[in-house]
Amino acid sequence: MSLQSIKYTTGKLEILDQLLLPVQSKYLAVKGVEDGWKVINKMQVRGAPAIAIVGCLSLAVEIFPEAYESKKTLRQEIEGKLNYLVSARPTAVNMKIAADELISLANELTKDEAVTVDDMKQKFLDVTEAMLQKDISDNKAIGANGAKAVLESSGKDGPVRVLTHCNTGSLATAGYGTALGVVRKLHELKKLEHVYCTETRPYNQGARLTAYELVHDKLPATLVLDSMVAALLRAKNVAAVVVGADR
After folding, report:
1. CATH classification code of 6-137
2. Hey, where are the domains in the chain?
3. If DSSP codes are grouped into helix, strand and coil, which group holds residue 224?
4. Is pTM beyond 0.90 here?
5. pLDDT tens per residue, range 211-234
6. Interatomic CA distance for residues 20 and 33, integer angstroms
7. Among 38, 152, 228, 240, which residue is least crowded by beta carbons within 10 Å?
8. φ, ψ of residue 242 in degrees (nearest 5)
9. Looking at the domain that runs over 142-243, which CATH code has it been given?
10. Which positions are catalytic?
11. A Pfam family this protein belongs to (predicted)?
């Protein structure tokens, strides 16, 4: 089972504090938007997909126990809090995209006279909570398609060696990972001979986070210096380099 960096049930959210990794594995309770803003801003949660999910779920946690007098009041709450969450890490584009989509949904529900304020609140919670499972499903599809592409391009029947950079796994997403999801799928198919991960200076996401995930999942892996990559590619017959790409 891959690492779980986000734990959520309706009304309760916890995140794995990434600033403490790999020395300590500690989950933090996120009790509302203010907590969500802080963990995003301090990089206790990182990775564009994970930031968007934690930000939106922090609002869901805050809204869940509340009663609202009108749809207008709820809409204002949603819009104001989401825009505030975007300010925690303005470069994390997934958070901005998710905020815009949820604000648009809130506006539509406010205008629909057939929708009550309780209906509107529940719809918002349902859509927000669905983001978690959709991200995992998307990541597994990326993993399957990526693994297929790597194997086809390698021209090998047996297991392959791959290199990855930075962190694109469960710690950067809702689970499984994007580029690291490709590595996980190769391992599931018994087609992964070895994966090499770089330090990723200056923040060392590879050394602190990706290496932590690979050890957790018991994948055959080696951490290498960033400056070793050219020699590694030449000496170890690496079939593919899999990395994340911000949109």
Report:
1. 1.20.120.420
2. 6-137, 142-243
3. strand
4. yes
5. 999 999 999 999 999 999 999 999
6. 22
7. 152
8. -115, 120
9. 3.40.50.10470
10. 246
11. IF-2B
